[in-house]
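Task: sequence design from structure.
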């Protein structure tokens, strides 16, 4: 099976828009899953720290752009993906997984998986993975706090 990269368009420096829905399918412990990132989703590409870019050869819009897309989609939703975005294959059809929640660790592991599937070498993949583990912590917890604040704020 050929690995398909997402169709993205640069909007401005460091920001991209997905032009068509991007499904990524995989098998885990004998069960098929897929994530579908909707068309129009905007993201900043592989935003690992610049030092990691240099050492790992990871670019924002290179052949590893699917990894950044799916990772940023999971992060944008703090792991709670829209119902129709995460599915499993049961009895010959795709079924939405209603009670889905991705951990930050799971999102980062998916990033590593997509880098592997895209053909990134093990050394570069480890560097990029460690970069998102370190750099992603701030983004993840900042988004969680912002979501919590917006839900608990009272406008009386």
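Answer:
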């Amino acid at each position: 099976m050929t690995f398909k990269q997402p169709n993205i368009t640069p909007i401005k420096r460091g920001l991209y828009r997905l032009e068509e829905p991007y499904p990524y399918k995989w098998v885990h412990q004998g069960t098929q899953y897929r994530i579908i990132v909707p068309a129009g989703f905007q993201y900043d590409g592989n935003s690992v720290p610049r030092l990691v870019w240099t050492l790992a050869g990871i670019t924002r819009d290179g052949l590893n752009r699917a990894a950044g897309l799916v990772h940023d989609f999971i992060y944008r939703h703090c792991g709670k993906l829209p119902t129709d975005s995460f599915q499993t294959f049961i009895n010959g059809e795709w079924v939405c997984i209603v009670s889905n929640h991705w951990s930050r660790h799971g999102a980062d592991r998916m990033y590593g998986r997509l880098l592997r599937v895209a053909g990134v070498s093990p050394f570069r993949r480890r560097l990029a993975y460690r970069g998102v583990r370190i750099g992603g912590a701030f983004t993840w917890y900042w988004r969680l706090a912002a979501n919590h604040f917006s839900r608990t704020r009272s406008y009386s």
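Strands lie at 8-12, 15-18, 22-28, 31-37, 42-43, 86-90, 93-96.
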